[in-house]
Specification:
By secondary structure, the chain is of the alpha/beta class. Helix content is 40%, strand content 20%.
Length: 150
């Protein structure tokens, strides 16, 4: 058991992918997953996972145990990509069953936000190392570079 924040202990473990189910609003008090991505973005996500499988350890899928399965609260698209790529297990942060259900979304947010901030800081550092001009993000630079290669 690893402590993630002051209020909740979150277990990090590999779970069989077949035990992970999409958040369709089945947990009372937690809205269904609103996020959908285009086919192109989904294919890019799969390519990213194939290129850097070690990054799975930095971005666990956030799940909540429910009716013998685990409902994905954060990472529905990644879980779908792992399944299509043939992964049998997924590294997950498992919220405790005694987590108040109406708080599950808030907890997921508090787990995800530090990871997002860590990625933002890393991208800023990469931008400085690449000597990008002020105001040009690494993402923007990569998009322009990719479009020039076509």
């Amino acid at each position: 058991m690893k402590k993630v924040d002051e209020d909740f202990n979150v277990e990090i473990k590999e779970l069989p992918i077949d035990l992970l189910v999409e958040n369709k609003g089945q947990i009372p008090g937690v809205p269904k997953n609103p996020r959908k991505i285009s086919k192109r973005r989904f294919e890019e996500l799969k390519m990213s996972i194939e290129r850097s499988p070690e990054m799975r350890k930095l971005s666990e899928v956030k799940v909540y145990p429910f009716n013998g399965k685990y409902v994905v609260l954060g990472g529905n698209q990644r879980k779908k990509a792992y399944k299509e790529l043939g992964y049998k297990t997924v590294l997950c942060k498992v919220l405790p069953e005694d987590t108040p259900r109406r708080s599950s979304e808030n907890i997921s947010f508090r787990i995800i936000m530090p990871l997002v901030r860590m990625i933002q800081i890393s991208l800023q550092r990469i931008g400085r190392l690449m000597s990008l001009p002020n105001g040009v993000s690494v993402w923007r630079f990569m998009r322009k570079s990719r479009s020039r290669m076509k």
